[in-house]
Each structure stands twice: as structure tokens, then as C-alpha cells.
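Students often ask what a holo structure prediction actually looks like on paper. The answer is less mysterious than it sounds. You provide the chain, you provide the ligand, and the output is a string of C-alpha cells encoding the 3D arrangement of the protein together with biotin.
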Amino acid sequence: MKDKILKLLYDSDDYISGAKISEELGISRQAVWKHINTIRKNGYMIESINNKGYKILARPDLCNKLSVTKYLNTKFLGRQFIHFDELDSTNAYIKEIANDYTDEGLVVLTEKQLAGRGRLGKQWFSQNSDGIWMSMMLKPEISIFEVSKITQVVAAAMYLALDELGISCKIKWPNDIIINDKKICGILVEMNSEENHINYIVVGIGINVNQNKNDFNSEITDIASSLKIEGGKRYDRAEVTAKILNHFEMLYREFCKGNFEKSREICEKNSYIIGKNIYVIKNGEKINATVKGLNENGELNIVYEDGQKENLIYGEVSVRLQ
Ligand code: BTN
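The corresponding C-alpha cells follow.
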């Protein structure tokens, strides 16, 4: 009942009267008052004015279904939304429950991750609740050979979402979002498949949003940053989350129809590494190369110092700027 009242409060732009809430939910006005007090105890500041009703003045900084849905304009993505205060890893959780969901689009988001995972088996620092730690479950009807492109589709959506918020970022192939030479977001796409059939795909996204400089562990303080540090203000995590989901659903639907070009173009145009000299790390060995572009499959075109060309595939290598 508390959640239903909250939803009514969220949905109304102005005051909503106790009489209206009690009528819509079939409970007494006394009960409405009691639930409103419980909601207040959960951190919401709710004003109540005689003859007008109730209105949310301030809400706790939670990135939950209600706060995200307010900004969401998707058809399927995030319409099923599970929110946790604490979880080991949202990617790991989706893998546990994926078989219980036939439709794609489930989003799992947690305020804190106790064992966040990054690419190439690395740890992902996400023990504080100032970031967005979320995973989406997808069930695309595509060949498994197309899956590596999804990271680029997510990166393109990240670019569009941040652009809409007035933040200018670059995409470091294959899965990093960079602002002012520092990483603020990482993408981890994992697949569960049998032969050429995809059972499900987990798209994990980690974004540093409202952290301050000293919130970062000494291991990453020189390479990581947050939207707040770079943008000079706090951001509403729910709004950022919804904008990412809105843009991703649009690009993902295009991609599933065979149009990857739109995402590829965004990634190429806003690449952090095209035209730059890089190291390709292969089997522990660092090899110098120059990045030429992003091909139609989302592979990175590079030329080694000896003139040899290669198209790098996601997952094969690590790229470090020289
Ligand atoms: C990387 O840059 O290495 C990818 C980082 C991906 C982190 C996100 S946070 C939400 C989701 N759950 C995880 O355990 N990892 C991803």
C-alpha cells in the first residue's frame, strides 16, 4: 500500500488530496495519513496542506523503480525493475534469475555492490551508493557472432544520454566512457548460449556519478573520475539511469533490425582513440600500433609499426594509450 501511495504522489505534479488517495486505493483517510508518516520515516519529505493535500518536496537519493520510471519513456526496457540496497554483483544476479524471465528488458540495479566485476576478470569498485550499478537482461534473436557489437550499442547510448545532460564524453573502444582523460563508466556484456542460440545476454553498466575525488581507492584515483567531479555538480542518478535506458532501447531496437550503423557511427565520431598511438596487449606482450577507425562490425582497425593491419575483436585484447 505504501508503494501505491508513493506512486500516486510521484505521478501527480501538484498536491494530491487525502480524499483522492483514499478513494483511488479504497482505504480510509486515517490509513492514508498513517502510510504517509511511514513514507516520511523512509526519508521522503512530504508536505501536507489543509484543503490541498500531499506533495513530495524531497525524496531520498534512491535509484529505485519509482524514481527511474518518472523519466522513463521505453516500451520494454526497465519496465521490470528490481532494486536492491546491496548485492554482490548485478550481472551475477541476473545470471541466477534469467531463466525465470521469458521477456527481455529486466533491469537490476543496486545501491551498492559488494563484489562488482569488471572486464577481463578485474574487480569493479562499487561499494558506495554514489554510482549507478545496473544490469539489463536481453534476449535478442541474433547470431552469437553479432553479440560483440552490443557493447558498442551501449557505448553509443551512454554517449547520447550524457550529451542530453550537457556532458561531453568520449568512447574508448571497446567499453569505456571517458571524460577529460578519465574513466567514468565501464560496460560488461556477458552471454549465455548453446551452439548458435542465445539464451540471454547480460549488459552490466557501472557509472561513477556523485563520488568525490577522495571516494576513489588509491589504485584507481589517477584513472577514474565521476560525473560530479567533471561536471562540478551532483546528478540525479534516477534521471541519468532513465536517459541511458531510453537511448539504449532505441539503438538496440535498430540494432536488432539489422541497423548497427547508427551506433557504430556515434562510436567512431566520438572515439577517444581513433588517430592515436596505442599499445595492444596480447598474451601479456605490449605491441605498438595506430588506430585507424571502427569497421562495420564494430572491430577496431589498427596498423602495427611494421605496417601490418588488424581488426581487433572485443574481448581479445586490452588497449592502453601510449
Ligand atoms: C569494465 O570497465 O571493466 C566493466 C565494468 C562493469 C561494471 C558493472 S557495475 C554493474 C554490473 N555488475 C557487475 O558486477 N559489473 C557490471
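Residues 116 and 226 are 17 Å apart (CA to CA).
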